């Protein structure tokens, strides 16, 4: 585990917690969701500006996320997502990509087993890195240490989320892709917005591996019955209650069970049972 020791950096935000707590993890998950929504909104705007067929893009996302799902009918050409709900399908895609590997101490970027070999020290190291990074601008951090573990994570996830054809369609070139593949981090509005998501997920991951016991991640499956104690619908219904007969169309973001017994609900897009 890399420990970032940041000297001469003045922390101007609120005091950082002295110890990792489930409440701190819950607050970090709120930040993940807000950053994800912001990046999704920017990406959707760029798609509209590039005259993408959003409905076709959503169908492609649905097919990719459900190709091995027993509840998904791969022969259908009709999207389960209404046109004005495309943002949820896009956010689901981004979340699935960026949370992949969350259960491993380095997102499977290497074969490290520090969390198993020396768990107490590893938990302390994770929280030290969390405290060091919490108030730092990710652009500043990567300007200092472009190839640190966080930098490698950003590169890996950007290339996973933003396909070359997508970038070329949105921007007319592959300049950002080329920079990332070369180990650099572009100073663009789009990449900066992506870094906002990457940082929040990285901090959440550090907190997860700081806690004892670690949070248990879960995700709602397509076709699963809606359970209010574990799921939260991204689409709000009249009266604030989910009507009977609703099932999961697709998961939007994962949920977590915490050591203190509390639950961070998985966010889901619901559809009527057919």
From TrEMBL:
Pfam families given in the database record: GIL1_IRKI_C
Domain GIL1/IRKI C-terminal: 218-269
InterPro entries per record: GIL1-like, GIL1_IRKI_C
Domain of life of the native organism: Eukaryota
GO biological process, one term: response to red or far red light
PANTHER family according to UniProt: PROTEIN GRAVITROPIC IN THE LIGHT 1
Name of the protein this chain belongs to: GIL1/IRKI C-terminal domain-containing protein
